Amino acid sequence: MDKNQELYYDEINSLRKFRSKIDSHAVYKEDLDSFSDEYEELIAQAKVITRVSDRLQKKLDNANIQIKDQNEEIKFKNIELKTTVDQLAQARVGRRASTIMLSVALVLFILEQIFIEPLIEESIDIPYVGLGILGVLFVIVKVLESSLEKYFMNKEKKKILEAEKTQEEQGWS
After folding, report:
1. Which residue from 22, 116, 127, 149 could staple onto 97, CB 3.0 to 4.6 Å apart?
2. What is the DSSP string of 76-135?
3. CB of 100 within 8 A of CB of 148?
């Protein structure tokens, strides 16, 4: 017997006995009263079970709503975290690129002052040519800095994607 049959064994047995009495036309008032009382008790039990089931369902629904809200909050926090990580990576990459390009600019400035400036002063008699060359060097350094920053950012994004892929493979997602 499975559990549902065991649970209602007495009720099913009582119903079978009552039906056999009906089939044999041996139903008495006491049988009807007894069957009526058993049926009334069964209805009372069904009401209790239904109330308990309804309360449990309401708790389950509330828990599901709470889980859904928490999942939405986690998604929002993950988006915020990703944005913050991207901003942090961008700042770190920008700082690294700026440091490298500042060093390059300093070297270029020194080289320009040592080698190019004396040549300009000796051979060209146009004022501010040296400043123009410094301006061109500045633009070149700035363009190189942007390119270097993009390069570093792409490397950083690859690292982040590889780390996320590794976490997913390990089941950390």
Report:
1. 149
2. HHHHHHHHHHHHHHHHHHHHHHHHHHHHHHHHHHHHIIIIIHHHHHHH---TTHHHHHHH
3. yes
Q: Given pLDDT bands bounded at 50, 70 and 90, which one contains residue 89?
A: confident
Residues 6+ apart with CB under 8 A from 104: 141, 144
| Assessment of whether the complete model's pTM goes beyond 0.90 | no
Give the tokens for residue 153.
């950012």
Phi and psi of 128, rounded to 5°? 65, 15
CB under 8 Å to 149, separation ≥6 — which residues? 93, 94, 97
CA 3 from centre of chain: 42
- Residue 119, CA distances (Å) to 130, 134, 135 in order: 10, 14, 17
Confidence of residue 3 (pLDDT cuts 50, 70, 90): low
Tokens of 45: 């039990």
Span 133-143, mean pLDDT?
89
Residues 33 and 40: their CA atoms lie apart, in Å, by: 10
Q: In degrees to the nearest 10, what's the CA dihedral of 156, 162, 166, 172?
A: 50
